[in-house]
Amino acid sequence: MKLQEIIRDIAALKIVGTIDKEVKGINIDSRLVEEGHVFVAIRGTQTDGHAFIRKAIEKGATAVVCEEIPDDKTDDITYIQVADTEDIAGEIVTRFYGDPTGKIDLVGVTGTNGKTTVATLLYNLFRQLGYKVGLLSTVCNCIDGQTVPTDHTTPDPVTLNRLLEKMAEEGCKYVFMEVSSHAIAQKRIGGLKFAGGIFTNITRDHLDYHRTFENYLKAKKAFFDGLPSTAFALTNKDDKNGMVMVQNTKAKVYTYSVRGMGDFKGKVLEEGFDGMLLDFNRTEVDVRFIGRFNASNLLAVYGTACILGKKTEEVLLQLSTLHPVAGRMEPLYSRKGYIALVDYAHTPDALTNVLATIRDVLHGKGNVITVIGAGGNRDHGKRPMMAKEAVKQSDKVIITSDNPRSEDPQAIIDDMRAGLTSKEMHKVISIVDRKEAIRTACMLAQSGDVVLVAGKGHENYQEIAGVKHHFDDKEVLKEIFANE
User: Fold this and answer.
1) What burial class does residue 29 get, using C-beta atoms within 10 Å of its C-beta: 0-12 exposed, 13-18 middle, 19+ buried?
2) Which of 79, 186, 256, 459 sits CB 3.0–4.6 Å from 16 for a disulfide?
């Protein structure tokens, strides 16, 4: 594609050099630049792409999009100066990849909790309905059954558009995508056309990046503000900010609720550790999921399928066959008669929901032993809140390491313990080694009890001192069960 076509309609402040040249690729990472590529210099949170312009040119870049044209310009290189490179990166990348979202129905899912579950279940549901489908999620990226590795909840614009182009080429009719607050704030989804958006909920998270809850909320809301009039916006009416999210959207608004009225109304009729009996819009359906928050997630999936024109009877039939997403309230059964649940809950609200679900199902007939930690180099403020919530709804709490990253694991544990009273501390054991913490929880458990191992869910690694080591909560539990 010609450079002049890629930058068409871009508000360039200045252009130095010819735009009549062929472009073979676009990159925002100088390390990935090859001959004939365009390098877009973005001012990131950690590094400034402008510092790598020279390196990108040495690797073969023939054009540079930047906010400041360097003084040491190179002959034969085209420099395109714009006010905000982050603003236009998505747009030019989308154009280079042939506008893939113009060929598919892209549905975005955003919120603090439930994004992965809703997006993955929609992917599985629509495949079972006979469609070719794509998935972009925290757990994995999939192109109709083919798994593609992922590093971020929402990839950078180049990776994202490359994946979407591949999905369109493979004949995907629908793509379901988690849309993180970081991706919205950093405009990674710029240039994409969404057929719809789903809001799950919003609670405290990522304040290490957004600084305030208001900024976090605004980032989520910006996604719905940007939806076109041809799209739909499905929002959780049970969340106090559910209607705030869609108050300025041009999209057609639908609501869902498991507590009150909504376009899609759900109710839990029966629940156990093997599943629930639900009522969706006056029709009953048995599902293999645990927890009222999952009833809400499933209702969002049901509502989305109905909005996209699928028959309600067929949707409900397929919902009854779906399995929980890896690491989301995933049960493992001990020969000693207790249940271990592995869950990704890593925010106070998610932990509250998971523990409340366990309590509801137990009906006071068993103890709850919770293994919990907090990630390093992330929101410090939620650490004591996590510990407080765990102690409030558990009979025993073992505070341990999650992904300490570059922080001292003991210091993170100390931050968590700081939120507890001396009385609450009687329920708490601190064990830095996560494997030993899980083993201790299992040793304490008796028949009829539940061991909740929270925080990592599907993750198969633990990041310590900046190095990722293989670690899988489920593998650890299975090993313990085998030796009981």
Assistant:
1) middle
2) 79
